[in-house]
Automatic annotation (TrEMBL):
Organism classification: Bacteria, Pseudomonadati, Pseudomonadota, Alphaproteobacteria, Sphingomonadales
SMART domains according to UniProt: PlsC (SM00563)
Protein name stated in the entry: 1-acyl-sn-glycerol-3-phosphate acyltransferase
Gene Ontology MF terms in the entry: 1-acylglycerol-3-phosphate O-acyltransferase activity
Domain called Phospholipid/glycerol acyltransferase: residue spans: 62-174
Keywords in alphabetical order: Acyltransferase, Lipid biosynthesis, Lipid metabolism, Membrane, Transferase, Transmembrane, Transmembrane helix
Segments traversing the membrane: 6-29
Pathway: Lipid metabolism
Record has Transmembrane helix as a keyword: yes
Length: 235
């Protein structure tokens, strides 16, 4: 760990403590997601993220579907919208990260178990009936930062069942895309260390694209349309 990384971790500790105190208070009034948004945005700035947004985020019952490059995506997007993230079930068991994800009301799903597809869709459908957007990294994992792989259609069914809009979102790190990509097979610890240690500011643009109507498209068509919109925005 570099000196820069150590200083960032030291600064992150009081940031977390303060937000946990506010989270406990805000929870009494059903406003905890606003505190989560503030924490993610603050942590992102501490790590060098400089976020710019384009377009208008849809509020309420909406499934946000985005490309996925790095765990920094969560800080960049979650710092702009009070939302809940769909996460792999194993993340719930990660030290500290799993606990924080649970406090942020992540929707944990077993993405690699086809037998659990119905339960996964039901969990996301239930989340979409609540007031905050739900975020799906629809590629099913991180890519190489350059190519946006086809979106998996299964969880788009939740938007159809909940009568929710689907809003494609493009996360664009510009020329840094490839360098930020989470290397295939790399565990979270070394990858977190790599990005915590990095120097300099990191511009990122979050493009909120026109929403799709889940009332007129099935899950497969939604996946194709959303993928095309994100790819187009990143071109």
């Amino acid at each position: 760990m570099t000196l820069r990384g150590i200083l960032r971790l030291i600064a992150a500790a009081p940031l977390l403590i303060v937000h946990l105190l506010f989270w406990a208070i805000a929870r009494l009034f059903g406003r905890e997601q606003m505190v989560v948004m503030s924490f993610l945005g603050s942590l992102g700035r501490l790590l060098g993220l400089r976020v710019r947004t384009e377009g208008v985020p849809v509020r309420g019952a909406v499934l946000i579907v985005a490309n996925h490059i790095s765990w920094l995506d969560i800080l960049a997007l979650g710092g702009e919208v009070p939302c809940r993230f769909i996460a792999k079930s194993e993340i719930a068991r990660w030290p500290l990260v799993g606990w924080l994800a649970a406090l942020g009301r992540a929707v944990f799903v077993a993405r690699d178990r086809r037998s659990a597809a119905r339960a996964q869709a039901d969990a996301v459908t239930t989340a979409l009936h609540e007031p905050h957007p739900v975020v799906l990294f629809a590629e099913g994992g991180t890519g190489d930062g350059v190519t946006v792989t086809p979106f998996r259609a299964s969880l788009f069914a939740s938007a159809v069942e909940a009568g929710a809009a689907v809003q494609p979102v493009a996360i664009d790190y510009g020329p840094n895309r490839g360098r930020l990509a989470w290397p295939s097979g790399q565990s979270f610890g070394p990858e977190a260390k790599r990005l915590i240690n990095r120097h300099g500011k990191l511009p990122v643009t979050i493009r909120f694209l026109p929403p799709l109507d889940a009332g007129t498209l099935d899950r497969k068509a939604l996946a194709v349309e959303a993928h095309g919109a994100v790819v187009g925005a990143l071109s």
